[in-house]
Amino acid sequence: MNKRNISISLIIIAILASIFLGFDTVIVFIQAIGLILFFLGTPFFLTFKNILYLSSVYHKKSTSHAITDFWTIFLGSLFSYLLLDISFHVTNSTWSEVVYNSERHQILWSGSFPSIFLLTIFVFGGYFLLNYASFQSFPPLVTVLAISSLYLGIVFCLTWMIQLAILAQENDAIYLFLYLFPINLILIFIRSILYTVIQWPDYCAERPFSRKIPQSWVKFLNSAPSLPLLALLFTLPLLGFIIMITILLGQEPDSLIKAWTETSDWTLSQRIAPPNAYYDEHYLCTVGASGHRKIVKPIRMGVRHGRRVVVNRQLCIANAFEQILEERLPKIHLAIRCLYDRYGYPLSRHIKKAWQADIIYVLMKPLEFLFLAVIYLHDSKPENRIALQYISKPPFTP
Prior knowledge:
The chain is mainly alpha-helical and 398 residues long. The chain has 3 domains: 1-40; 56-261, no CATH class; 284-387, no CATH class. The chain is 66% helix and 3% strand. It is elongated. The protein starts with a helix and ends in an 11-residue tail after the last helix. Residues 393-398 have low confidence and may be disordered. InterPro entries: DUF6688_C, DUF6688_N.
């Protein structure tokens, strides 16, 4: 079947689908397929391009190399962030903070961010020097240090992959997508090093070393393998220089190590985090209690379905009101509960962020005042009923 017949077949299928399913449904379906192909296909396409460029490193660099590198770094960072946030629920909470439900603590300790940021500057500074500046125009030691910085970048990427390896225990193959970004960075760094090594003998021929240097040394320095070996020797001194700067910035000498170890939930973690608290994602008031502390004002931990949950006053009032409603008007309570389960659940199940929970908490305030008025009109000791909510396993789920 030629291309023309394929095109005609696709057009006929699209027309028939529009007739039977509706035009809007077809458009939504096409958009969904496009997004899936973009998010799944782009990482593999960029990986293929970087492998191709690495295999053809002896050829002259072109503009396409720079374009591919840019999209690899930009989209790789974006996709990794979205995947960690949406699929694995990674938060910015330190190991000592309580997270909720299936959330995870941060991968890198935030206390070491200045050190990580400085290391990143050195790594990508070396990358830009080797790729977008003529290394023939600056001293040889600068070229050596630029390659040393890329060595540090490769070590960082490998450590990142080790840190994420614990996700393999969940038998969820989607975590493999998180490896594509560091693998592509390693490919880019290796390509940059190899290109510089290949050009090194020509550079030495144009700028010969001093005659005072023994000929055996000159022969070694003019050879291509000398450059990566010298860079390897200078890697530790460069790392020591970076650590000295971080100490001047107020960081501890081992901050780059603590970046990995002062965490929980990950392969290199050395800390044990407090157990996750739980809130029922089916109900608006319970979701609202998971907002920012200054806004939702949690008062204590409670017990619900055998799990520890965060409890604030709004949640206790809503639960107490439903308790009264079920005692006095069971049929009305059942109707309201069915209605709420039908329409409230689709909304509350999508609330995953603290700021979203804050909005729910504020929107529920008028109902909270109404519930509180009913409780005060019904009970002689209303605060006792409110205080007893979630003390033990409750039979109600507001």
